[in-house]
Write a structure and sequence with these properties.
With 570 residues, this protein is an all-alpha fold. The chain has 25 helices and four strands. The strands form two sheets. Strands 1-3 form a two-stranded antiparallel sheet. Strands 2-4 form a two-stranded parallel ribbon.
């Protein structure tokens, strides 16, 4: 292995070892297997409103490839991104910056790690589809027709998703929540644009659809004017069966997939130019600067600036710390502190958007306010909500915060601050709903406003990362309030949602989410207490000289952590 490739592989292997500790990898096979079952067994893909394919190996592979690639294209970004942020947060980036590893080698290693993870997920999708065919399929097994869609459709798309994850993390304004939102909407736009002729199709939908339509035309030549759209149904009814032999790969089809690989290469090129090598003061600081919604704020300051240096005139450290109490401060002070942390530190455009949301909620037609303005306005607090419950773990301040607080008071203040942020950007809407007699809209708004911060708090407490809530919320927002999927209409945008009792279900889920958050926070405090006790026991058992050195080092680190926390929260 050449000296140029060996560092790339080393970075990828190190990143994969770090990923192997995440419980997400245990959940992925279960979710993918269940997804394949839903696509191939529980529902039926209908083409043109009247046709469905015979359950051959080619049909199983084609349907799961298109739908699976679409899902991975939308959500794979959030699944793999965050590794460069982790290097910033943990201080590994400072070691990389001072090493002989080039920017290109480091970023290629991260990209290769992403590709391996997404490729392994594709392999699970392929294997699950094979199992579904063995249980439900008919006819012989055509290996090439079965494997080729995953090889030429899914893998190039995964390479582009991996490149986007690397690229977004090197651009400061696209790190964290901002990047998640931008990528999600960019992916949706790319899916829509890909339906037009002679445009890059990120998920290969047009390739599969054209192939299936040709088979339908050959087997039913008398049918004309067919709408080639895809739909899923639980009741195929009187659909006619088409025997599809798979995709006949042509130069044009392969060239369309090469264009997706070219996009991946372009994104990696942008990442290489924008990467600041963990130095925010570089000439690319306008691209690589920090962002309010990132997970890596704690690691964006050099170690030399975060850690106080010992005085050359002093050979010992003698620090007096105020005694710790567990009164937690008054509820008003804690709530104001949580509210300040939720509302401060954003770029100016965020506050402009909040102001526009308030004005639009007060002036737009009342029907538009219910169906468009309120759901859109409640996307604005996404970054504030996604950090609820996870902020202490992200900035590694759990021992400092929890040791002097009351769990219920702190958690309650965090939740109320999240509710108040949502109220700030939509407060004209409930007033207008009440005056207009739209009590269903008023109830839906109230339940949604209570539910969203509650589920964000629970996810933050249990996962410790904002991305889980971010991608869940964006998905539910797109399918529920925007596309009218009733059981995901958490805001009661449709009157039928409120009348059917779904809104009340979300009220119950709010209570369950708050209970889960409280249980998770209590569990976390017990874990921190036990770790502190173990650390104290180890320290007391050491020799006096070692104990004095450790006390000095610990005091220095504690002062550094407290200073960082106060400056960040101020």
């Amino acid at each position: 292995m050449s000296d140029l490739v060996r560092p790339v592989v080393a970075v990828a292997l190190a990143d994969l070892k770090e990923r192997s500790r995440s419980p997400k990898l245990l959940v992925v096979p279960i979710l993918v297997s269940y997804f394949v079952k839903v696509v191939t067994v529980d529902t039926t893909l209908v083409v043109g409103g009247d046709y469905t394919g015979a359950p051959t190996s080619a049909w199983f592979a084609g349907t799961t490839t298109v739908i699976g690639t679409t899902v991975f294209f939308l959500f794979g970004f959030s699944f793999v991104s965050g590794t460069i942020a982790r290097d910033r947060e943990t201080g590994v980036g400072e070691l990389i910056a001072s090493s002989a590893l080039s920017n290109g080698q480091y970023l290629l290693g991260k990209w290769l790690s992403h590709v391996v993870v997404l490729g392994a997920t594709t392999g699970i999708l392929l294997g699950s589809t094979g199992v579904a065919f063995l249980r439900q399929g008919t006819g012989g097994f055509d290996l090439w027709a079965f494997v080729s869609p995953f090889l030429f459709i899914t893998l190039p798309t995964m390479a582009a998703v991996a490149a986007a994850a690397v690229c977004f993390e090197t651009i400061g304004s696209l790190r964290g929540t901002a990047g998640t939102v931008v990528y999600f909407f960019a992916a949706l736009i790319a899916l829509l644009v890909g339906l037009a002729p002679n445009t890059p199709d990120p998920v290969g939908l047009e390739i599969v659809r054209e192939s299936v339509v040709r088979s339908i035309s050959a087997q039913y030549p008398t049918d004309e004017g067919m709408d080639p759209g895809f739909t899923y149904t639980d009741d195929p009814g009187s659909t006619r069966t088409v025997t599809w032999e798979g995709i006949a790969w042509t130069t044009s089809n392969l060239a369309s997939r090469v264009s997706i690989v070219a996009i991946a290469v372009g994104l990696l090129g942008v990442a290489t130019v924008a990467f600041d090598r963990f130095d925010d003061s570089s000439r690319w600081a306008f691209l690589g600067g920090s962002d309010r919604g990132t997970d890596d704020d704690a690691g964006s300051v050099p170690v030399s600036d975060r850690t106080p240096q010992p005085s050359a005139r002093s050979s010992s450290v003698d620090i007096e710390l105020a005694p710790i109490t567990r009164d937690g401060g008054s509820i008003r002070h804690v709530l104001l502190a949580e509210l300040r942390m939720a509302l401060r530190g954003y770029p100016r455009w965020w506050y402009v958007v909040c102001s526009l949301a308030v004005v639009t909620a007060g002036l737009a037609p009342i029907g538009t306010v219910r169906t468009v303005v309120v759901p859109t306005a409640l996307l604005v607090p996404l970054s504030a909500w996604s950090s609820l419950g996870a902020r202490e773990r992200i900035h590694r301040t759990e021992p400092l915060v929890f040791v002097g607080s009351r769990p219920l008071q702190l958690l309650g203040s965090t939740y109320v601050s999240g509710v108040l942020v949502g109220l700030v950007v939509t407060f004209p809407a409930p007033i207008r709903f009440g005056v207009s007699g739209l009590y269903g809209a008023l109830v839906g708004w109230g339940v949604g406003l209570l539910f969203l911060p509650a589920i964000a708090l629970a996810m933050g407490v249990w996962t410790g990362r904002p991305k889980t809530f971010e991608i869940t919320y964006l998905t539910a927002w797109y399918l529920g309030p925007v596309n009218g999927l009733g059981f995901l209409d958490y805001l009661g945008v449709q009157e039928t949602t409120v009348a059917s009792g779904i809104t009340l279900i979300y009220g119950g889920l709010t209570i369950l989410a708050l209970g889960a958050a409280f249980f998770g926070r209590t569990r976390g405090e017990r874990r921190n207490a036990s770790e502190t006790a173990r650390w104290a026991a180890r320290r007391s058992s050491r020799r006096p000289f070692g104990s004095s050195v450790e006390r000095a080092y610990s005091s220095s680190r504690s002062i550094s952590a407290i200073s960082s926390w106060r400056s960040w929260a101020a």
